Amino acid sequence: MALAIDPVVPAALYAGTASGVFASADGAKSWTAANDGLPIEANGHVGPLSALVVDPAGTVYAGQQPQNSNNPHSVSQYDVACFQVSQH
Question: Which residues contact 12 (CB under 8 A, 6 or more apart)?
């Protein structure tokens, strides 16, 4: 699981889970799925996310470890998807 806070809008939070990314615009009172741009697995789900970063422009970057990776600590073993979920 990963958590990121928008550096411009601190009430905007993002959680990366085994079910994908969820966004909150109200300081975690409510959450909605925000998976646009992420690859969908054969089972129809977004794979588990292990890293999230939000840049000041509102772009969220998600890091996902492939299921077939033998070394979970190797940066080169990560797939990265970029998707925009908010704008300032």
Answer: 5, 6, 23, 24, 25, 54, 86
